[in-house]
Design goal:
By secondary structure, the protein is mainly beta. It contains two helices and eleven strands; from the N terminus they run βββαββββββββα.
Length: 144
């Protein structure tokens, strides 16, 4: 599935099935997207390809290691590699097609904004689960 930033300069593709989606409600993701949460998925590096525009990607890293990659032309968040793990974080709002995607999890529900009402189904985690278990969950066939 093909995706691109708002201005179209940064383009990428996910090869193969798209894993289930999650929404993160932590304060960093709220600030990153300017909303109640961000909606993303995690794909293996072997399933991710850049098409164009890597030269337009700027990176900001918080001292805690939180990383934000974005298009320097339009400001859209763009996929970025997860810390020392063989995966890419992909904001799914950049995908050109919707397909049969579903939100399977909500992260950091314990620190969501007081005005945030989680209306979509999915497993709720108070914080961030262990990464390998979470990736396995997103790539599994069940939502339980």
């Amino acid at each position: 599935m093909h995706g691109k930033c708002l201005c179209g300069q940064v383009e990428f593709e996910i090869v193969g099935a798209i894993p289930k989606l999650y929404q993160c409600h932590c304060s960093l993701c709220r600030k990153l997207g300017g909303s109640s949460s961000n909606t993303a998925t995690i794909v293996g590096i072997e399933h991710f390809r850049w098409f164009a525009g890597q030269e337009y990607i700027s990176t900001w890293v918080k001292d805690t290691g939180f990383r934000s990659d974005f298009c320097s032309k339009c400001g859209s968040p763009v996929p970025n590699p997860l810390r020392s793990a063989p995966y890419y974080w992909v904001p799914v709002g950049l995908l050109d097609e919707e397909g049969q995607l579903a939100i399977a999890a909500h992260l950091f529900v314990g620190s969501k904004a007081s005005w945030d009402v989680i209306a979509s189904p999915g497993k709720q985690f108070e914080t961030m689960p262990e990464l390998s278990e979470f990736v396995e969950f997103l790539h599994s066939d069940t939502h339980a």
